[in-house]
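Students often ask why we bother encoding 3D structure as a string. The short answer is that it lets us treat folding as translation between two languages. Here is a chain of 128 residues written in the first language.
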Amino acid sequence: MHRELIITPDPIDEPALVRARAGRSDMGAVVSFTGVVRGSEAGQPIRGLEYEAYVPMAEHQFRLLFDMAAQRWPLASVRLVHRTGFVQAGEASLWIEVVAPHRGEALAACGWLIEEMKRVVPIWKRPR
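And here it is in the second language, the structure alphabet:
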């Protein structure tokens, strides 16, 4: 399975990520998810979120999650980009792409990765 992980303070360039997709004719599903910072947190308006990560452990945890996902579903590729630093409301803070033979597998794996990431990866956010 192809795996790609980027933890960066730079804006997420979704068109470039899509252009870089490795095509495989035996895969029928490409699912991508973009997490966008909302303009409010706990009912209060905010300018954005400040993301902080313990990068070595975050990378380790993401790799473990990628391994677990590959054991659960027949995935061809998982690519994930997560921002750090200040991310303004309306900007993307997370981008995930999962490639699998069928849509159900790709959708399930993508949803599972998001939930598990929030549970175990040491990335914290603070509203500003």
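Translate back mentally: The mean pLDDT is 96. Keep this in mind for the problem set.
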